[in-house]
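Order emerges. For instance:

***
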Amino acid sequence: MKSLVCSFTTLCVIGNFLPAKGQELKEIRPNFVWFMAEDVSKHYLSLYNDGSYGAVTPNLEKLATEGIIFNNAYSNAPVSSAARTTLITGCYATRLGCSYHRRMEEVPLPKGVNMFPAYLRKAGYYTFNASKTDYNCILDETAWDVVGGKLCEWHNRPNKKKPFFLVRTNVLTHESNLLFPKSRLRETRTNNLPDNVFVHPYHPNTELFRYTYATFYDCIQDSDKELGKLMRMLEENGELDNTFIFYFGDNGGALPGTKGYTTEGGMQVPLVVYVPARWRDKIPLKIGTKVDGFVSFVDFGPTLLHLAGVDARQEMDGIPFLGTDISLKQLNERNEVYGYGDRFGELYAFNRTLRQGKFKYSRNFLSYHPKSLYSNYRYKQAAFCEWRELYEAGKLNAVQSRFFEPQKAEELYDLSIDPYETCNLADSPAYDSILKGLRKLLKSKMIGEHDLGLFPECEWLYYGKQSPTEFGLNSWTSIKKYSDIADLELGSFEEAETILRKVLNSTDPVERYWGVTVCAAFGDKASSLYDELDKLLNDSRGYVRSRAVIAMIRSQSRSVNVEDIMKQALLLSKSSAESLLILNDMTYLHDVLSYNFILRPTELLQSSNEIRNRLEYLNN
């Protein structure tokens, strides 16, 4: 395994040192603009659906006629802060300890790593952010000349000949614009007709859902107007011919089950890059080209550095996707992309994805959880609530219902014929070799990247928050061990039983945690481990106790005094992250197994916004 990790690292380092071709890049440097439309996946744009459905965006479509369209661009994470941290560092957030939305505690970047705009500044660029950072790590003070400036902030740079980098976050498409009451259907008409929208197959085709889609189309079109304004400003100021404009979504979304979930709708974003006139003879891609190769947020920073003639940093994980030396053939050979989801607000999840070619593999480490587990912000959307109500009333088909049912440990989709991930091929014998191959690749990727998700968040924060990356590097052996334990779920219980018995008696609390998690996934098959699980109801770690409760109930070993044990687990908690993990287990017990809890604030030793959201929900 070590040789695999070394080989992977070597490939990354070679890729990250791709030299910029031609001294002209250093003599005449282009400007860069990132126009980020919040919470937009490509599935809602007419541009990506041959004009047959989706929001019509004339300014973006004009941009596309003078640029490059990327058909397979990914945000790596399906939620803003984790995706933005990936974007601004060029590093996978899972190894930085930054894949959790939102951060429980601030963590530093690895030694020697800056947010990539710092390297542009050092090379002579004026950098400004208008006007959102939203990173999960400590802000790099060397990254920006201005944070919070106006759309045309480049006017204010001291030297007007200085090249600039502008990040503009457009909030008109943010999920918050869909948090309206159901009564709005009768009060406010949409510009896009609800009857003309295309409702994705995993959603119910109801009046409220059609209206919500139409509202979102309107939001996208409002955002497109600002894009047009920005393009005109650049042209009027004589900057357009030397400015690369990147239009993309900051993650997928924003309809129910997209943002915050590692589906294509949550992570596949539109990406259109306007190539300025001055650079069209230098970039070996024809204007109007559609690229099928895969790019992701981890690649964006290295790409800008490459175009600017600045060496990409060895510490970055991404590889440039535009430059004088990058051909269409090379781009279309890029056929892998990695995705991750951890905590979203108060909702703990642990999902990893790997797409290779037309196949997408998903590994769900809390497979007994439905994706629908309560999250305060998600269920502020009326369409989300209606979706759940229709499920509880038995009015959904199998595809629409799946969101509310336990996940499979593994999912496999052929996206060439199933772009909305409706038919899981993981159990099909015909795809067994593909499943096992992608499983092995993803496991190698997680271990090679020192994925901190294999630790409970509270554990790596307690022992490694001063340098999460270094902690992960030093914990390589443990990460591999935890991965092996978690993967016991993928085989039969008979094969796993002896190992699980040993793991449940381990002196390592994280081993015990993964042991009880796997037992919970096996359900009643794990009833033979009654003695070991019973012992863990008095574990020294609160988060192990709470997970043991779930394993005991699902294994149907015996009745458990659930409320008392969960409250005792909370009193053992050493941090807000641990309390939140226990409260997440309580939410599962409430939502899926119908247990009720009444919790007083005095029964918790920690507090945070996320904890308060959980308390409010459980108590009501």
